[in-house]
Amino acid sequence: MTLTEHRSSEQRPSDYDVLVVGGVGVDTIVRVDELRVPPGDSVFVEPLRDYVGHTGNGVALGWHALGLRTKFIDFLGEDPQGRMVLEHYDRHGLDFSHLVSPYGTPRSANLVDPQGRRFSFYDGRHPADLRLPRDFYLPFLQRAAHVHLSIIGHNQDMYEDIHRLGVTSSTDLHDWDGDNPHHRHYALNSDYVFLSAAAIPDRLHTVLRAVIDEGRARFVVATDGADGCYLLERGDDTIRHFPAVRPERPVVDSNGAGDAFVTAFLHAFFEGRALEDCVLAGSVAGAFVCGSVGTHTEFIDLPGLRAASARAAASW
Question: Helices then strands (H, E): number in the chain?
Answer without folding.
Answer: 9, 13
